[in-house]
Amino acid sequence: MPSATALLRRHDAHSWYVTFAGALMSLTLVIDLVFHVNMTQPWLNWLLLAITVSGAATALVMGRRLPRWVGITAVLIFLAAQGYFLSLADDPQTVVSAMQQLPIVAFYLGWFVRPRLAGPLIALSIAVFGVVSFANPLFHAEGRIGAPVAVHGLLSLLFCYVAGNYLWRRAKRVEATDALTGALHRAPFAERAAARLQRTSAPISVLAIDFDDFKQINDARGHAAGDLALESTVSAWRTELRSGDVIGRLGGDEFAILLPDTELTEASAIAERLHASSPHPWSWGASEYTPGDDIATLLARADAALYRQKRSKQEVDRA
């Protein structure tokens, strides 16, 4: 049997959520089956119980290896089932139970499913559940449940989706961002730049940056000093750059800055201004987008200009 530490290492937020959500839903279904008198469709509750128990056990065993499609499939099944349960005009207990489970599903969609899929699913769910609730006499003014319960249930669904979506976006931002400097990692930077190149006809330039004598800082003063040099320099850049400019850390002390709506001459002027305000020296090269370029081509030309500047500095130092 794996130790508690090994079990924790095997899981991520997704697998833990599926495990505990499945366990919670299983418990509510068991309570319904045991205490609910005159249940309309007990076989459906038994089927859902088998799905939730199996899902929770699978997530517990597989951990982070659990595919996202498993969770999405379970969500679709439960959304369909809850839509049916909410329509039962002669079973108020099942209707209330279904309403209580909606936030669990909505939170999952918000946290672990891409918004372009989760958003339409939530919108469709709210529309369908709203229509079903409106048609169910139990939610009418004279009904045994009343309209406020339906409204509160739908608002809870929407709130939990928004809260989950916040966590999704926060996780993506943390994943894409260098913890030390706040710059984007290489792949997210390239994706952001490529998307910008595709959707604009305005001039775009890129700066390629490499810190001067960075290895000597680490060797002579330690890595903490090197980290401070990187952090303070990138912070100084941010005070000078525009809100639409994008900083990327390509690796080590190599950075790139995407400058939308910027021609090559203006990009050079920006680089000079950034250099003057930086606490640590660095070399740079600039390139401007031309038709047919991709971000790799753009960076390659900027890198070539960067190393020409470095060679020029070395020749001056030798002289």
TrEMBL record:
<dbReference type="InterPro" id="IPR000160">
    <property type="entry name" value="GGDEF_dom"/>
</dbReference>
<feature type="transmembrane region" description="Helical">
    <location>
        <begin position="145"/>
        <end position="168"/>
    </location>
</feature>
<keyword id="KW-1133">Transmembrane helix</keyword>
<dbReference type="GO" id="GO:0005886">
    <property type="term" value="C:plasma membrane"/>
</dbReference>
<dbReference type="GO" id="GO:0043709">
    <property type="term" value="P:cell adhesion involved in single-species biofilm formation"/>
</dbReference>
<feature type="transmembrane region" description="Helical">
    <location>
        <begin position="69"/>
        <end position="89"/>
    </location>
</feature>
<dbReference type="InterPro" id="IPR043128">
    <property type="entry name" value="Rev_trsase/Diguanyl_cyclase"/>
</dbReference>
<feature type="transmembrane region" description="Helical">
    <location>
        <begin position="43"/>
        <end position="62"/>
    </location>
</feature>
<keyword id="KW-0812">Transmembrane</keyword>
<feature type="transmembrane region" description="Helical">
    <location>
        <begin position="95"/>
        <end position="113"/>
    </location>
</feature>
<feature type="transmembrane region" description="Helical">
    <location>
        <begin position="120"/>
        <end position="139"/>
    </location>
</feature>
<feature type="domain" description="GGDEF">
    <location>
        <begin position="202"/>
        <end position="319"/>
    </location>
</feature>
<feature type="transmembrane region" description="Helical">
    <location>
        <begin position="16"/>
        <end position="37"/>
    </location>
</feature>
<dbReference type="InterPro" id="IPR050469">
    <property type="entry name" value="Diguanylate_Cyclase"/>
</dbReference>
<keyword id="KW-0472">Membrane</keyword>
<dbReference type="Pfam" id="PF00990">
    <property type="entry name" value="GGDEF"/>
</dbReference>
<dbReference type="InterPro" id="IPR029787">
    <property type="entry name" value="Nucleotide_cyclase"/>
</dbReference>
<dbReference type="GO" id="GO:0052621">
    <property type="term" value="F:diguanylate cyclase activity"/>
</dbReference>
<protein>
    <submittedName>
        <fullName>Diguanylate cyclase</fullName>
    </submittedName>
</protein>
<dbReference type="GO" id="GO:1902201">
    <property type="term" value="P:negative regulation of bacterial-type flagellum-dependent cell motility"/>
</dbReference>
